Amino acid sequence: HTVSDQAIKGGKELDVFLKTLAPKVEKNIMRAALRAGANEIRAEALSNVPVDTGDLKGSIRVTTRSKRGVVYASVKAGGKKAPHWHLVEFGTKPHRIMPRDGGGLVIGRNLVAGVDHPGAKPKPFMRPALDTKSAEAIAAGAAKIRERLTKEGINLPGTEVE
């Protein structure tokens, strides 16, 4: 399933209602809902990621931000300990590895001028997570909206995921 295959029953009504809330409350509710949905995708990415040292797995995280009143959530991988995430996700073509300083590469006890790398097959873990968990992400987001509205003392029927 893709996100476009899903519909939230009462989605238009929910959007109109959210616009009547105080902007800070609306922003907090949407941030929580998007984070809940993104965590569904993150969990799947964690189960799909190949593990060597664990640095790549440890780098998969959910972030949220707000820009001009619109809230965004992202599932990200990489960072200082795992800058190679894209090489795992997309693979690499055969290529030559050369030393940076013009010297040589030490492989075992040998000093070599360069190495021909055969390339690496892709091992996607992020895109399959989105493809397989988008419906669950939408459901988690809708459930979080219902939970937060209930916490605010508002019961809004009709926001079930179909």
SSE layout and pairings?
Blueprint (H helix, E strand, L loop, with lengths): L10 H10 L2 H26 L6 H5 L1 E7 L2 E7 L8 H6 L4 E3 L7 E3 L2 E3 L2 E3 L8 H26 L11
Antiparallel strand pairs: 1-2, 3-6, 4-5
Structure description:
This protein has helices spanning 11-20, 23-48, 55-59, 85-90, 126-151; strands at residues 61-67, 70-76, 95-97, 105-107, 110-112, 115-117. It has 162 residues and is an alpha+beta fold. 45% of the residues lie in helices and 16% in strands.
Strand content: 15-25%
Distance between the termini: 13 Å
Q: Number of helical segments?
A: 5
The side-by-side strand order for the widest beta sheet comes to 1-2
As an assembly, this protein is: single chain
* Largest pleated sheet: 2 strands, antiparallel
Mean pLDDT: 84
Number of strands: 6
